[in-house]
Specification:
The complex is a heterodimer of chains A (about 450) and B (about 300).
Chain A lengths: L13 H19 L13 E8 L4 H18 L3 E8 L2 H10 L6 E5 L2 H8 L7 H4 L4 H4 L9 E2 L2 E2 L1 E14 H7 L7 H13 L3 E4 L7 H25 L7 H15 L13 H9 L3 E7 L1 H8 L6 E4 L14 E9 L6 H11 L2 H6 L14 H7 L1 H16 L6 H4 L2 H16 L4 H17 L10
Helix pairs in contact in A: 9-10, 9-18, 15-16, 18-19
Chain B lengths: L8 H4 L12 H35 L2 E2 L7 E2 L3 H8 L1 H33 L5 H13 L2 H11 L6 H7 L11 H28 L4 H9 L4 H12 L1 H17 L2 H6 L11 H10 L4 H30 L1
Helix pairs in contact in B: 2-14, 4-8, 4-11, 5-8, 9-10, 11-14, 13-14
Chain lengths: ~450, ~300
């Protein structure tokens, strides 16, 4: 057979190539063109989308999966909840909202983002459903401004965070120390802990600096008191005035005296600091009530107790800094607002918030039952008593992650290390706080206490 | 049979190089087909590289929080950049990073490659071991190093057992940056080593032997024979060091978050915090443009070095 008679494979003709390219473009367009934000309202079956934190504890993930999602789907057979657990849902949500999409239900850490999303008109007001689901009476009055923007409700709360001090009862008993109730007692116990070769307070900020903001929250609230802190946040007291200067100076003194993880805090992680407390190398730990969930789920090998942070000076009553720890909102781009509101009502119901106590945190309920808290763990009951007492005496405080301007908050927790290291003076630090506060008010990004 | 090709008289006269239009018809068709094949990836690159790059430049002249409509602010962001002390800290930290990157991995890689080129056995095993850190996931190694350098769990506790009081590697502002740089160099220098070993295989050994016979010392052989032959490799490595020292992010982000305070803040982590913690995407875009300009500058340096080589 001669090679000249053999059929040689030909190059693709122009027409074939164009058809291939057109087909490829059509396939890509079809793949990219799928709608975001759940199913269509036109169909009888609805799909709602939501993002959860992948860092949630296994207990919390199980609660989210079984109680919140499967429980809701069982009660609403025509609705499916398509949940994704992702590392940083907030960043994903912001990017998707900017592109005109995003999940139907938005989760925020703390309530600061409620103001942000509402101000940017990215979420639906809950006015239409507020009375229907009784949200305006279900949640405590202190929480409502945090769930609202300009007087309109936009979010439901998932939990309340309260800042407290944990202490190792065994260590305290062994050394004959009493739980401190005043600032001078706290300094005395800290000094004795140091003398005994222990860390007074476990503190770690190398991976995330949030432990710094817990200390700043404590210092400001317990130097200015509840009234003074509100005046500070309303702009009636300057951030660079003597009160805040005194609060930050007190922290610097604690650092210099070696009571905050012996000055090693910036070199260790938050988890390592918690381990220091759990390994009985430190006598106390300043942290939120979210830590109680871990301590109850996985009890340490010693007795521990919960204390209110004492007032930093005798002129004020100690207050109880608290915040709405997590909220849920409805994306303005959702095609199924009523179904989304139905889901919010399910998550934010008294029944499910009470069930969430152990896996998620203290429920944000007007009718917070101490008996229900005690049923889980006596330390929860102690926190419930702090809350009741502070609530009735007007001493509910203001945790930074719910109440402080966002830019001020981010800067203050990062730059505190510079004050500790002596690279920045306390006066320069508070001056910057004042300028950040004024900038946040001037550019309209901070409106929480606009009307006092 | 001879093939006759029509070439323009100006090309024949050597007045200009031949262009596509001068080529015969079948060559032009081939070229068009080539462009058609390249077109999809070119279009994709336009969409995912060029469009965002142009958008970043445009955004750098705006104030934008990520959700509202961007507001044109002219050169305000650039003025703010010049006056921003944290940006200055970040640039200085990047320059420190660059200095360490230009000296340590190249010196280590070159000397180890020289040593390994004389090894008769075990070279492959040693090369694999030294290259291993480069292929391990950065986040995992960053976490491991964080634990190793921790004052409560890491090497410090071992040193304390033998009576040595080690510093707090990641908590001391004057040490933090260098600790993270050291970890990044630990990961990176294996790559430099492998590239160097590859290039040294191409060094003309006859020249080396001739020089040694003529009485040249080992240092002179390295300086006058080996290094000149590695010039293109060194230029490539210098460019990689320049680029990577300014785009470093992961080790700082995982190990220190730029802290304590701003002690280990570099451009990339600062840009991230401005964009996603402060929600100031317009200003973050300005920082990104600054990084783009640096990358462009580095590319020009590289081309300059390569041009010197061809001359």
């Amino acid at each position: 057979m001669s090679l000249t008679h053999r059929r040689v494979p030909r190059a693709l003709s122009k027409r074939t190539m164009l058809v291939c390219i057109a087909a490829l473009i059509a396939v890509l367009a079809a793949a990219c063109g799928s709608s975001s934000g759940g199913g269509s309202s036109g169909s009888s079956h609805i799909t709602l989308t939501i993002l959860f934190h992948s860092q949630d504890s296994p207990l919390q993930k199980a609660f989210e999966r079984q109680t919140l999602i499967q429980g809701f789907e069982k009660a609403h057979p025509n609705i499916t909840v398509d949940a994704t657990w992702t590392a940083n849902p907030r960043d994903v949500i912001v990017q998707q909202l900017a592109a005109g999409g995003g999940p139907d239900i938005l989760i925020t850490d703390g309530s600061a983002d409620v103001q942000y999303f509402a101000q940017q008109k990215q979420v639906l007001p809950l006015t239409k459903w507020e009375n229907q689901y009784g949200w305006n009476t279900l949640y405590p009055s202190w929480a409502m401004p945090l769930l609202s923007f300009n007087g309109t409700m936009y979010a439901i709360p998932n939990k309340t965070d309260i800042l407290v001090m944990y202490y190792n009862k065994n260590i305290f008993a062994q050394h004959g120390w009493s739980p401190p109730t005043t600032w001078s007692q706290l300094l005395q116990v800290s000094a004795e802990a140091k003398k005994a070769g222990l860390q007074a307070f476990a503190l770690g900020t190398s991976d995330i600096p949030n432990a710094n903001e817990w200390w700043i929250t404590a210092a400001i609230n317990d130097t200015l008191g509840a009234t003074g802190t509100k005046q500070l946040l309303s702009g009636q007291i300057p951030w660079n005035g003597p009160q805040v200067t005194s609060a930050i100076s007190a922290l610097k003194q604690l650092w210099d005296d070696g009571y905050l993880n012996s000055g090693e805090a910036a070199g260790i992680t938050l988890n390592e600091a918690t381990s220091e407390f759990l390994d009985q190398k430190s006598a106390m730990l300043l942290e939120g009530t979210w830590e109680l969930g871990s301590l109850v789920a996985d009890p340490p090998g010693f007795n521990y107790g919960v204390l209110e942070i004492p007032a930093f000076n005798s002129a004020v009553q100690p207050d109880l800094p608290l915040a709405v720890g997590q909220t849920m909102l409805i994306n303005k781009y959702t095609k199924n607002p009523d179904a989304a509101a139905e889901f919010l009502a399910w998550v934010g119901s008294a029944e499910n918030l009470n069930k969430a106590l152990e896996p998620v945190g203290i429920p944000t309920l007007a009718d917070l039952s101490i008996a229900k808290l005690a049923a889980v763990n006596p330390n929860y009951a102690t926190v419930g008593q702090f809350y009741s007492a502070a609530s009735s005496s007007g001493n509910l405080g203001y945790a930074s992650w719910s109440y402080f301007p966002a830019t001020l908050r981010t800067w203050m927790m990062t730059a505190l290390d510079e004050v500790y290291d002596g690279q920045m003076s306390v006066s320069a630090y508070v001056d910057k706080l004042e300028s950040l506060y004024q900038a946040s008010v001037a550019n309209g990004s901070y409106t929480l206490f606009k009307n006092g | 049979m001879s093939v006759r090709v029509n070439v323009s008289p100006s090309v024949q006269a050597g007045l200009r190089p031949p262009s596509l239009l001068d080529a015969p018809a079948h060559r032009r068709r081939q070229s068009v087909t080539g462009w058609l094949f390249v077109a999809p990836s070119l279009a994709l690159n336009m969409v995912i590289v060029l469009v965002p790059a142009v958008a970043t430049v445009v955004l750098s002249f705006t104030s934008w929080n990520g959700l509202s409509s961007p507001r044109f602010t002219g050169l305000d962001n650039y003025r703010m950049l010049l006056a921003d002390p944290e940006f200055h800290t970040a640039i200085v930290d990047n320059l420190k990073w660059l200095c360490a990157y230009l000296v340590v991995p190249i010196t280590l890689g070159f000397t180890t490659a020289l040593f390994m080129s004389s090894l008769r056995r075990g070279g492959a095993v040693l090369r694999t071991l030294l290259f291993l850190p480069y292929v391990l996931p950065t986040v995992v190694t960053a976490q491991l190093w964080s634990m190793l350098l921790s004052p409560v769990n890491g090497v410090n506790t071992l040193l304390a057992d033998v009576g040595i009081h080690a510093p707090i590697w990641l908590g001391n502002p004057s040490l933090t940056l260098w600790s993270v740089v050291a970890v990044d160099i630990w990961r990176f220098w294996g790559l430099v080593l492998v590239i160097m070993i590859g290039s040294m295989g191409k060094v003309d050994t006859q020249l080396v032997e001739a020089a040694l016979i003529d009485g040249a010392g080992r240092f002179a052989v390295v300086r006058k024979i080996i290094i000149p032959q590695l010039r293109s490799t060194l230029a490539l490595i210098v460019m990689l060091c320049l680029l990577w020292s300014f785009t470093a992010f992961d080790y700082v982000f995982v190990m220190t978050q730029g802290g304590p305070g701003y002690a280990s803040q570099i451009l990339a982590t600062y840009m991230y915090s401005i964009a996603f913690q402060y929600n100031e995407l317009g200003y973050a875009a300005t920082l990104a443009v600054c990084l783009m300009v640096i990358a462009l500058f580095v590319t020009i340096i590289y081309r300059f070095l390569r041009r010197g080589e061809s001359q």
